[in-house]
Amino acid sequence: QLVESGGGLVQAGGSRRLSCVPSGRTGSTYGMGWFRQAPGKEREFVAGINWSGDRTDYADSVKGRFTISRDNAKNTVYLQMNSLKPEDTAVYYCAAKAYVGGPYNSGYDYWGQGTQVTVSS
User: What's the pLDDT at 30?
Assistant: First the structure.
């Protein structure tokens, strides 16, 4: 119900921007977030943003390197990833809430299929 794009192969130290848009079958979305899952690991929270875009939250591992933003006119949320490290390699998932409020790292109703980001050393 969400469609991610922008994944690919990037060298360490490089940048990548992920995008996420709801599919036609997705209802109204409010808070949105990005999660990731590396091979052999559990899915983890990366970043979250509220509906108006003026409040965000980040995992400690990406603070200062990643930026989440949204353009409600385009119904799109972005994840700008800078200074990428090999340990950022994972499948990145977009998620959305069908309600206002709640913590940024949980309680999501809609999920995308994921986009692979591979950071080479």
Answer: 85
